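Q: What would this complex look like in 3D?
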Amino acid sequence: DADVTQTPRNRITKTGKRIMLECSQTKGHDRMYWYRQDPGLGLRLIYYSFDVKDINKGEISDGYSVSRQAQAKFSLSLESAIPNQTALYFCATSEPGQVSSYNEQFFGPGTRLTVL
Amino acid sequence: KNQVEQSPQSLIILEGKNCTLQCNYTVSPFSNLRWYKQDTGRGPVSLTIMTFSENTKSNGRYTATLDADTKQSSLHITASQLSDSASYICVVSLRTSYDKVIFGPGTSLSVIP
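A: Here is my prediction, written as structure tokens for the whole assembly.
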């Protein structure tokens, strides 16, 4: 079984629709992240959460919201999707405190979202 | 401005050949540098990590180098295989109160028979 799973894997939607992308993990990590990836650009951080009660904005949080329902679940919502939110979205997890794995993030398989 | 640049943007090599990918960064305060491999349709997977005091790290046919003075890193792939076809992403972490990371845009490598 995959350690970090994302649903759906592909989604096509229309401008103005509300969309939720879901992420689940079985790694037992406290830290979870949402990124978007656009061609020619590095992954950009949308939101991150260090535990269930902690939610933080990343560098491109406008137009997005998140919910940390449990340690293992972190959802990303687009309240009113727009075409420039068409991208590949990745969820990731990490666990601090171990020098050898410091900052290593474990990524899900991604969700390809197209907003028409 | 904290930034990570990679070159070349894309590369095509013949199976069995070697290649070197470059990463330049302007990130401060520096904590560590990772190279990730991202296969098409998959999430990135860590290949190597190097801290400030390390200047080389190997993982099988992958060897990463780090020059913290010039803020440059390279990833050398030896005896390339078709399965090496992927995007290689350089990621630099900042030494801050949380694990902030800066991703490079990646180099797309195609290994052809």
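A: To summarize the key features: The first strand of chain A starts at residue 4 and ends at 7. The radius of gyration of chain A is 14 Å.
Q: Very helpful, thank you.
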